[in-house]
Specification:
With 275 residues, this protein is α/β, with parallel strands linked by helices. The chain folds into 2 domains: 52 residues, Spermidine synthase, tetramerisation domain (Spermidine Synthase, Chain: A, domain 2, Roll), CATH 2.30.140; 211 residues, Rossmann fold (3-Layer(aba) Sandwich). Strands 8-7-6-9-10-12-11 form a 7-stranded mixed β-sheet, with helices on both faces. A 5-stranded antiparallel β-sheet has the order 1-2-3-4-5, with no helix packed on it. The termini are far apart. The mean pLDDT is 95. Bound molecules: 1-{4-[(3-aminopropyl)amino]butyl}guanidine. 1-{4-[(3-aminopropyl)amino]butyl}guanidine binds next to strand 5 and helix 2.
Length: 275
Amino acid sequence: MKTTEIREFHTPTSGIFFRAKRRVLSEKTAFQKMEVYETTSHGRVLLLDGLVQTTEKDEFFYHEMLVHPAMMAHPRPRDILIIGGGDGGALREVLRYRIRSAVLVEIDARVIEVCRRLFPGLTSSFGDERVEIVVDDGNRFIRQTDRRFDVILVDSSDPVGPSAVLHQRDFYAALKKCLRPGGIIAAQAGAPLFHLEHLRKKRIFLKKLFSFALYYLGPVPTYPGGLWCYAFLSDRVDPRKRLRKKVPKKLKYYNSDVHHGAFALPEFMRDRRRR
Ligand code: AG3
């Protein structure tokens, strides 16, 4: 059988590879290069600019951990904003709650169109009546909207390319203005093994912006280093407190023990500048 090899380099000399059965799609959108491959081991794999964004096999590790800590810590999340996340995975998790509305702001309409066709397990929620899809630059959207949200999720890619701004101080300062009192932001923050310096700097500005600015961790087997970092940001809610709600049914990764364990940081990631 003819196969194609896909590789993502995590450093100049290491990375991850898949031997794909076939290439399902490869195109240059207005923003980035998008590829989808069919593999035996991981199902369909989506890459943007050569970086693995999602695989059908392990997407739940990431999407559940991006969404549930914030949704569970908030006493009553009603209106939700997702920045990025055009593959629909985060939205699917948000819709497990009794929310009023979810706005998804994705910069690249092609990501949405392609994922709708090729990743039905992720995008089934796009048709839900509570959902509004906006094709726009998230960084622009948050500066011009007067809507306010209870939970904001930042499902960006790495701090290079179109996602770079979504990792900067200015963006978080503007995002904070879109929160209702008591609101929570959860944002993917990168690979502790490879982005430690970036994470350290980011923690400094996040702590100045929010009373609670905490990193938490979860594995994502196909992402660089295998261990992924997320930021939990709020002025009111401490996610380490006991959860007061029932965890949605049928999750594959997240539960309340995982929630609390995720906020325990290994030695190399501890904040030595405790306030
Ligand atoms: N967002 C985070 C992707 C980061 C992957 N980085 C990498 N492979 N170097 C994923 C979007 C999924 N909804």
